[in-house]
């Protein structure tokens, strides 16, 4: 199964596996294609079901696929074999943060809240676990669907770190004991560059995922 090899090819066509996706369908559809491509790899590897990989319910996934990617064989995601899952406490907190800042009345933003909350529990940079090609794409996604939340990240903190800081602030306690970020020994873990190769490119190059 083929995946995007570089940003130039990615700007010309979008794909889940071998199915092309027209660029004109927009940035949201591009992000969904990236997420579903990552989910499909995890389903095929037996690492997760489609609902576990995306954070969406079976009905929501069915709707996303039908509306956005009608040419895709839905059976590839084995939706008939999965059940809806309940998020654990950490995922529920992340969902709540994102729901609170989502564009009002926008079901697309609500779905992205579920997807982002779920993928934020994975081990790589969030942009990587969403299947995106760089952090800039994640920043654009958040600025589009969660504008007030994204605008608050004025120091360019890593997005997952920023989410957890906001959760801590909401509960009335500090994320760490350092008097300021600049005086913290782990400054780079919060504010360092989120560089690396996209997971699609790593798969294309035959490299194992950490």
Could you give a quick summary of the protein structure above?
The chain is mainly alpha-helical and 210 residues long.
Give a written overview of the molecule.
This protein is an all-alpha fold and 210 residues long. Helix content is 52%, strand content 3%. It has 12 helices and 2 strands, in the order αββααααααααααα. The chain has helices at residues 7-12, 27-44, 50-54, 58-68, 89-101, 107-119, 126-129, 135-145, 147-151, 159-171, 187-191, 199-204, and strands spanning 14-16, 19-21. It has a two-stranded antiparallel ribbon. A hairpin with a 2-residue loop joins strand 1 and strand 2 (19-21). Helix 5 (89-101) runs antiparallel to helix 6 (107-119). It is globular. The two termini are 20 Å apart. Mean pLDDT is 79; it is low at 1-25, 177-181 and 205-210.
Give helix % range: 40-55%
List segments where confidence is low: pLDDT < 50 over at least 5 consecutive residues. Answer: 1-25, 177-181, 205-210
- Which geometry do the CA atoms define? globular
By DSSP, the count of extended strands is 2
Structural class: mainly alpha
Q: What oligomeric assembly is this protein in?
A: single chain
**Strand order in space, largest sheet:** 1-2
Could you report the average pLDDT, rounded to the nearest whole number? Answer: 79
For the CA atoms, what is the radius of gyration?
Answer: 17 Å
SSE blueprint and pairings:
Blueprint: H1 7-12, E1 14-16, E2 19-21, H2 27-44, H3 50-54, H4 58-68, H5 89-101, H6 107-119, H7 126-129, H8 135-145, H9 147-151, H10 159-171, H11 187-191, H12 199-204
Antiparallel strand pairs: 1-2
């Amino acid at each position: 199964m083929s995946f995007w090899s570089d940003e130039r090819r990615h700007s010309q066509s979008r794909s889940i596996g071998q199915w092309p996706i027209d660029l004109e369908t927009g940035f949201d559809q591009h992000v969904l294609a990236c997420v579903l491509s990552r989910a499909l790899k995890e389903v095929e590897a037996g690492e997760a079901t489609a609902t576990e990989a995306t954070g969406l319910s079976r009905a929501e996934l069915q709707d996303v696929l039908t509306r956005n990617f009608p040419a895709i064989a839905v059976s590839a995601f084995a939706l008939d074999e999965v059940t809806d899952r309940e998020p654990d406490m950490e995922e529920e907190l992340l969902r709540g943060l994102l729901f609170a800042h989502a564009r009002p009345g926008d079901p697309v933003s609500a779905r992205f809240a579920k997807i982002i909350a779920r993928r934020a529990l994975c081990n790589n940079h969030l942009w990587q676990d969403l299947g995106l090609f760089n952090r800039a794409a994640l920043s654009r996604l958040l600025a589009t669907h969660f504008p007030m939340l994204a605008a608050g990240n004025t120091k360019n903190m890593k997005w997952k770190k920023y989410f957890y800081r906001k959760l801590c602030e909401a509960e009335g306690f500090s994320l760490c004991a350092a008097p300021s970020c600049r005086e913290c020994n782990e400054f780079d873990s919060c504010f360092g560059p989120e560089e690396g190769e996209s997971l699609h490119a790593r798969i294309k190059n035959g490299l194992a995922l950490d």
